[in-house]
């Protein structure tokens, strides 16, 4: 059997290579342009993959951008393992704030903005990015309740909003920076509310 045929069989399928090229190209474009100026034509040109192929997997440019960001961002904001619930949430919040300081934050903010005029984009953002992370956070909070770290009457949905709401407020409004001081102080103060059952 020719070597080329063997390599083709054992290598990554062409569809996966094309998807990877599209996502990589989209990410590179997003670092130098805005969501408003991004286009499927530019993604096709940069990736070397035809527009028809792109539309086979994604309905619009925001959907491609969302998956491109997720591929790069997800490994950096995972919840760490083997720690207390308080330490786990603290480290993950700090990682998210650090990530949102740069290109990730700028692009996520633009995707959310795009979603205000395109319900499909906002739905995809919630389904692909927001809800899975809220589910993971709720599991950590439940562990904290079971271990006596958090108040047993805690409402997990409200707790997540208390913890992460300020991050998105600064990201979208930009009135104050997502800096190191914020990353260190927000988990400390927000978690105190959960631990001591203080009323806002």
Automatic annotation (TrEMBL):
Q: Which GO terms describe its molecular function?
A: DNA-binding transcription factor activity; transcription cis-regulatory region binding
| Pfam families, per the entry | TetR_C_11 (PF16859), TetR_N (PF00440)
Q: Which residues bind DNA?
A: 39-58
**InterPro entries the UniProt entry points to:** Homeodomain-like_sf, HTH-type_TetR-like_transc_reg, HTH_TetR, Tet_transcr_reg_TetR-rel_C_sf, TetR_C
According to the lineage, what is the superkingdom? Bacteria
The answer to whether keyword Cell cycle applies is no
Where the record annotates domain HTH tetR-type, the positions are 16-76
> Keywords of this protein's UniProt record, alphabetized?
DNA-binding, Transcription, Transcription regulation
Q: What is this protein called?
A: TetR family transcriptional regulator
Q: Which organism is it from?
A: Gloeocapsopsis dulcis AAB1 = 1H9
Question: What high-level taxonomic lineage is stated for the organism?
Answer: Bacteria, Bacillati, Cyanobacteriota, Cyanophyceae, Oscillatoriophycideae
């Amino acid at each position: 059997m020719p070597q080329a045929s063997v390599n083709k069989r054992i290598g990554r399928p062409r569809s996966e290579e094309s998807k990877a090229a599209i996502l990589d190209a989209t990410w590179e474009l997003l670092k130098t342009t805005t969501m408003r100026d991004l286009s499927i034509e530019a993604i096709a040109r940069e990736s070397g993959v035809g527009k028809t192929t792109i539309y086979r997997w994604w309905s619009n440019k925001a959907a491609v951008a969302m998956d491109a960001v997720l591929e790069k961002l997800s490994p950096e904001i995972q919840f760490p393992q083997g720690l207390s619930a308080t330490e786990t949430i603290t480290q993950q919040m700090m990682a998210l704030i650090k990530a949102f300081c740069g290109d990730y934050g700028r692009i996520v903010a633009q995707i959310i903005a795009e979603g205000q005029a395109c319900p499909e984009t906002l739905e995809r953002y919630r389904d692909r990015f927001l809800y899975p992370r809220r589910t993971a956070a709720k599991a950590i909070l439940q562990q904290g309740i079971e271990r006596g770290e958090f108040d047993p009457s805690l409402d997990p949905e409200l707790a997540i909003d208390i913890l992460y709401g300020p991050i998105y407020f600064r990201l979208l409004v930009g009135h104050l920076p997502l800096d190191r001081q914020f990353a260190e102080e927000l988990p400390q103060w927000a978690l105190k509310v959960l631990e001591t059952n203080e009323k806002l």
